[in-house]
Amino acid sequence: MKNDFTKGSVIHNILELAAPMILAQIVQVLYNIVDRIYIGRMPKNSTLAMTGIGLTLPILTIIIAFTNLFGMGGAPLSSIARGKGDSEEAEAIMGNSFVLLVFFGVLLTILGLIFKEPVLMLFGASPETFPYANDYITIYLMGSIFVMIGLGMNSFINAQGFGKTGMVTVLLGAIANIILDPIFIFVFHMGVKGAAIATIISQFLSSVWILLFLCGKSTILKLKIKNFRLKKSRVKRIVTLGLSGFVMAITNSTVQIICNASLQHYGGDLYVGIMTVINSIREVISLPVSGFTNAAQPVIGYNYGARSYRRVRSAIKFMSVVCIVYTTIAWGVLHLFPAFFMRIFNQDPELISKGLPALRIYFFGFFMMSLQFSGQSAFIALGKSREAIFFSLLRKAIIVVPLTLLLPKLFNLGTMGVFLAEPISNFIGGAACFFTMLATVWPELSED
């Protein structure tokens, strides 16, 4: 049986998937932030343009939320079904997920284009930044269906153990985006419009590559038209498990909206730009641990479906240790060289000088995020949707949102109160998620 994760070393299985998936995550982040890097180097109004792009991030995150709902919801279920030897159900899950991704891709495009103006103003746009935000999101929405197919269906490639193919998917789009961005932005003088055009062309290429692979001879599970017919019970299971990733992304979007609105109120456009840079840095330093936990999920889910619980425990232990070590090192590097990371995205001296203390506060105790990553990934891989959803809500909706609204008013913290909400949530939410996972999951995995 191809890619049987019950055979061989658990660590080797994870690492074999992790190497290409981490590289894919690196490339994916480049995909997302290369627009911001180029726009930050525009000869005119680069900071305003950067801020405008930052205002669109909640909308982009909502699109990712629906991608997670059906991609991250279906892929672990497909792994569990394959571990049980039920390839027909695994293919049916993949076919249903694809149809849901396409339908909601079209729906979100229509709704986004209708409501984009009032939404951007609600998110904190000013008369100076709105034109840049509007130009970018209008074009991006036209290609949102390619974004959803590219990200959502790539999860099924990785879930089958084809980490290298999943990496090529992302690499193809990222290279195209890196090449096309400067051409459209600087050669054709299209600014943020050019960045958006380059992005949707790149996502289109990735989605075509994915569909060719999943319909070809090299894949284990094939995308078949007969599986496009939605089954209520199957859709319910996909959505139920995907709710964790959906809630996480939606709450991230909510936090971005509230942060931008609060920063606009207490500090103006400059601090919205600072938050855009900090979010970009967070994407960069989170990508290895995100790629690693994504690589561990198919191994955990497959062995769980095969009832090889000793191997499940070993995978969770290895995943957790790697996450803790990496995030601790990343926090140290960020604390020592914050200006280096900020200058990657913007050269404005005022933005950097006021952004340095904000960055140090925001990333304080970043290692605690490893506990959230590990606990959340274990719950998702084992199909435990309730726990995964609850801890997604706990860290962001229950902790970060209230703190973002309250802290700026306490002790005259202002903008620094907004940045302080994140580390507090990492300590409380991360610890609660990880130790609950140990208390609830470990007894179940006591013996094969």
Order of helical and strand elements: HHHHHHHHHHHHHHH
Main sheet attributes: strand count, strand direction, barrel closure: none
Roughly what percent helix?
A: over 70%
Number of beta strands: 0
User: Outline, from the CA principal axes?
Assistant: globular
| Gyration radius from CA atoms, angstroms | 21 Å
Mean pLDDT: 88
- Report the total helices: 15
How many separate domains make up the residues?
Answer: 1
- Uncertain segments are none
Note the beta-strand portion.
Answer: under 5%
Q: How far do the termini sit from each other?
A: 21 Å
Which structural class do the helices and strands define? Answer: mainly alpha
